[in-house]
Design a protein that fits this description.
Layout (H helix, E strand, L loop, with lengths): L1 E5 L7 E9 L8 H12 L10 E5 L6 E10 L6 H18 L3 E5 L10 H15 L17 E6 L4 H4 L2 H20 L7 H14 L3 E5 L1 H6 L3 H7 L7 E7 L7 E6 L1 E5 L19 H16 L4 E11 L11 E3 L5 E3 L7 H16 L3 E6 L3 H7 L4 E4 L3 H14 L3 E3 L17 E2 L8 H10 L6 E6 L5 E2 L9 E2 L4 H10 L1
Parallel strand pairs: 1-6, 2-4, 2-5, 5-6, 9-11, 9-14, 10-11, 13-17, 14-18, 15-16
Antiparallel strand pairs: 3-4, 7-8, 8-11, 12-13, 15-18, 19-20
Helix pairs in contact: 2-3, 3-5, 5-9, 8-10, 9-14, 10-13, 12-14
The chain binds ligand BES and zinc ion (2 copies).
């Protein structure tokens, strides 16, 4: 549990108090805290540089067992992400040390170059997200999440900050839910299992749910989606989640790629490229978790979440290179490569959403191309949209939440590369270059007149090595960004 409390340090019994200390500026205005910092800085081993720390025991006048002063680095560099990272790293260390309960002293608003709510939000986010461990499959749980993390503020600040803790808890719970889904191995999240898991969680939080099952998909001719699912023993589905608050004025839609495992199909992945493909449903996980979070936050807009779920496997029933299928929208597609499966399931979901719900804005998230990771690396997502205003809004939300996005081009002349001799389109571009762009152009053919953006999260959806506020595995990249964005749209 994570909370925000105004307490008197002289009387409140505290096991462990964390004090963030800036290297070159006073950032606390509490007399006692500043006394602690003065003492710490007198020690040779502590300069308050980033990562420095020192523990003081039995500090005179305080009911605190240990005070850990931790360096925040230079004042100039302190922003929301530094605070997030700081708190994530602190929580990690405290977990390693086996602590159960910690307090963190929040710096004073006037002394930081950001607003108090932004500082508190970032600190709580870092702590909350950093306190998650994916340990479902470990018999011996070596690092256990802290039971309680309290942020200590002064009584005057309490009123203004009241709404922050519940909001941060809800949004971080969404990110963590996405992380758990993504990190779950594919043998425990077949399309049937993943569908069930999403539906049961969504219902619990009051979302309207609808599942199109294999027979419905066949009946309504989701030919592109079904072509991807053909090789698997598992049955595909399309989950539609709906958050419909009374009086909502506009309809927004989210679409998420839900490939529970991407072997490549008959164009089977080689070398190490198949490892990690359990995370090929990250777009789906992020959309489902965002929908749940929006419902819990009682967001005002009407939002549709469309989640096509399949497994991409080779078998005697699998779709072959050269096969031609008819998409939900009616366009025929030659399967140039069975490993370009994400775009096939996305276009059927997008066409369905456009036809049935006519949203004002539609955004899809997908671990779509390795090419996007080549272009932007593992931490930045690619944004593709003909609508620059929408791109800017996405990028702004990405900067605020540190789920960073970069706008990529959608050059119309590259559409040439998707031509097929026999069908309306080929799912594989004729050039091996610019693969993230040609994939996005393929999707664009199915966005109709709807304002649409595609976010390629192939890089940031998953990390092999843990970071300050995210352990190894799924990152949940996109949940915080979308929650921020949808409140603005
Ligand atoms: N799921 C992959 C993309 C991917 C690659 C995600 C690396 C995360 C990390 C996607 O389905 C795929 O296989 N894309 C191919 C497209 C190609 C066949 C046109 C790719 O990127 O190589
Ligand atoms: Zn693939
Ligand atoms: Zn894929």
């Amino acid at each position: 549990m994570i909370g925000l409390k105004a307490v008197d340090l002289q009387t409140q019994k505290i096991d462990t108090l964390i004090v963030p200390v800036c290297e070159d500026r006073k950032i606390h205005d509490d007399r006692i805290i500043n006394g602690v910092i003065k003492k710490a800085l007198q020690l040779k081993e502590f300069k308050a540089e980033k990562g420095d720390r020192v523990t003081l025991y039995d500090f005179k006048g305080l009911a605190t067992e240990r005070i850990i002063c931790v360096g925040l680095g230079k004042f100039k560099k302190i922003d929301q992400e530094v605070l997030r990272t700081f708190c994530g790293a602190v929580v990690n260390r405290c977990m390693q040390a086996g602590f159960e309960k910690i307090w963190v002293a929040v710096p004073a608003a006037e002394k930081l170059k950001m607003e108090m709510p932004d500082a508190v939000e970032a600190m709580m986010e870092g702590a909350c997200l950093g306190n998650h461990v994916f340990a479902k499959y470990k018999k011996e749980k070596k690092t256990k999440p802290l039971k309680e993390i309290n942020f200590r503020i002064k009584p005057e600040a309490a009123g203004k900050l009241r709404k922050i803790p519940p909001k941060v808890r809800t949004i971080c719970a969404g990110t963590i839910l996405a992380r758990e889904w993504i990190s779950t191995p594919s043998n425990d999240k077949t399309p049937e299992q993943f569908t069930r898991s999403i539906v049961s969680k969504a219902r619990k939080y009051g979302l309207k749910t609808r599942v199109l099952r294999e027979k419905d998909l066949k009946q309504h001719k989701f030919g592109a989606l079904l072509a991807v699912a053909a090789g698997s023993q598992s049955k595909p589905s399309m989950v539609i989640l709906e958050h419909k608050p009374a009086g909502a004025k506009k309809t927004l839609a989210l679409v998420g790629k839900g490939v529970t495992f991407d072997s490549g199909g008959l164009n089977i992945k080689t070398g190490g490229s198949m490892a990690g493909m359990k995370a090929d449903m990250s777009g789906a996980a992020v959309v489902a978790a965002t929908m749940i979070t929006l419902a819990r936050l009682k967001t005002k807009s009407h939002v549709i979440g469309a989640i096509p779920i399949v497994e991409n496997m080779p078998s005697g029933k699998a779709t072959r290179p050269g096969d031609i299928v008819r998409s939900y929208a009616g366009k025929t597609i030659e399967i140039g490569n069975t490993d370009a499966e994400g775009r096939l399931i996305l276009i059927d979901a997008m066409s369905y959403v456009v036809k049935k719900h006519k949203p004002l804005v539609m955004i899809d998230l997908a671990t779509l191309t390795g090419a996007c990771v080549v272009a932007l690396g593992e931490k930045i997502a690619g944004v593709f949209t003909p609508d620059n205003e929408l791109a800017q809004a996405i990028i702004a939300s990405g900067n605020k939440t540190h789920e960073r996005c970069w706008q990529m081009p959608l050059p119309q002349d590259y559409k040439e590369l998707l031509k097929s001799d026999f069908a309306d389109l080929n799912n594989m571009a004729s050039s091996r270059w610019g693969g993230a762009i040609t994939a996005a152009l393929f999707l664009a053919e199915f966005s109709g007149d709807t304002r649409w953006a595609h976010i390629d999260i192939a890089g940031p959806a998953y990390i092999k090595k843990g970071e300050a506020y995210c352990g190894p595995g799924g990152t949940g990249f996109g949940v915080r960004l979308l929650c921020d964005l949808i409140a603005k749209l």
